[in-house]
């Protein structure tokens, strides 16, 4: 079984409002991407890791991430305008022997080895898996004039995270179909959902945060200090 990973790191991080792309911001001495990649590198069954970065960050990623930290399995690929375009570019670069592909956000450094391995195992069985957590807040659908339209039953609501793991041929077909039809989604599982095929969720972890806005940096520093995550320390 050939397992590959795609780390999506082709965004600029506009909501972070920093002077560099947020995935290169330093948390407790190391760039965010270092933490994410080092957790993937230690998983033996993952044979290759495609790191997708924006055109302006290609050289920096090569020098300051791959060379500096001596990542052995990481190959860099240029990203696209949207996350979905970046993942697609990564999918096209995978070895044709790939059976299962694990897609993960570069800015979720607190993912654990155990969750990644569970998602791979589940994808072998079910072909399309998203890691998610049950929502803790009450969620409202809000319409015009900020008027609440309805309150979905919380028991049915999960917040999607990454990794999302798939049968390689299935997710490639899902991406190609979405591109032909001009559909853009905010994660990869929705591309399989719209083919009418089942996608399962497995439980992730609340600490598997996506570093998005400035206050997430403070949370991330605290999580590193408290020992969360499986990265090389
Ligand atoms: N064209 C893009 C846009 C996003 N991503 C990646 O997708 C992940 C999740 O996206 P998000 O947190 O929204 O990152 P950005 O798009 O960079 O953030 P923003 O929307 O604030 O600009 C990030 O690791 C990001 O680098 C990507 O690979 N290619
Ligand atoms: C894929 C994702 O991380 C699942 O929560 C998320 O949808 C990415 O969204 P963004 O629009 O790139 O922040």
Automatic annotation (TrEMBL):
It comes from the Bacteria. Pfam families: IspD. Keywords: Isoprene biosynthesis, Nucleotidyltransferase, Transferase. HAMAP family: IspD. One of its GO terms (molecular function) is 2-C-methyl-D-erythritol 4-phosphate cytidylyltransferase activity. Belongs to the IspD/TarI cytidylyltransferase family. IspD subfamily. Its EC number is 2.7.7.60. Pathway: Isoprenoid biosynthesis; isopentenyl diphosphate biosynthesis via DXP pathway; isopentenyl diphosphate from 1-deoxy-D-xylulose 5-phosphate: step 2/6. Catalyzes the formation of 4-diphosphocytidyl-2-C-methyl-D-erythritol from CTP and 2-C-methyl-D-erythritol 4-phosphate (MEP). The record marks 15, 22 as: Transition state stabilizer. The record marks 154, 210 as: Positions MEP for the nucleophilic attack. This is 2-C-methyl-D-erythritol 4-phosphate cytidylyltransferase. GO terms for biological process: isopentenyl diphosphate biosynthetic process, methylerythritol 4-phosphate pathway. NCBIfam families: ispD, PRK00155.1-3. PROSITE patterns: ISPD (PS01295).
């Amino acid at each position: 079984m050939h397992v590959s990973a795609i780390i999506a790191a082709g965004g600029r991080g506009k909501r972070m409002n920093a002077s560099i792309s947020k995935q290169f911001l330093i948390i407790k001495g190391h760039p965010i991407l270092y933490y994410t990649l080092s957790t993937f590198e230690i998983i033996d069954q993952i044979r290759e890791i495609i790191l997708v970065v924006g055109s302006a960050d290609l050289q920096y990623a090569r020098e300051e991430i791959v060379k500096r930290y001596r990542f052995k399995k990481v190959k860099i690929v240029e990203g696209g305008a949207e996350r979905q375009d970046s993942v697609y570019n990564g999918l096209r670069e995978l070895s044709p022997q790939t059976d299962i592909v694990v897609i993960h956000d570069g800015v979720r450094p607190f993912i654990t080895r155990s969750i990644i391995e569970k998602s791979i195992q589940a994808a072998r069985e079910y072909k399309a898996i998203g890691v998610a957590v049950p929502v803790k807040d009450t969620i409202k659908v809000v319409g015009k004039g900020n008027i609440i339209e309805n309150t979905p039953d919380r028991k049915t609501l999960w917040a999607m995270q990454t990794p999302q793991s798939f049968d390689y041929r299935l997710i490639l077909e899902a991406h190609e179909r979405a591109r032909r039809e001009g559909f853009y989604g905010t994660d990869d599982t929705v591309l399989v959902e719209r083919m009418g095929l089942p996608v399962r969720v497995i439980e992730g972890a609340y600490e598997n945060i996506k570093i998005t806005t400035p206050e997430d940096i403070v949370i991330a520093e605290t999580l590193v200090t408290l020992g969360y995550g499986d990265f090389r320390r």
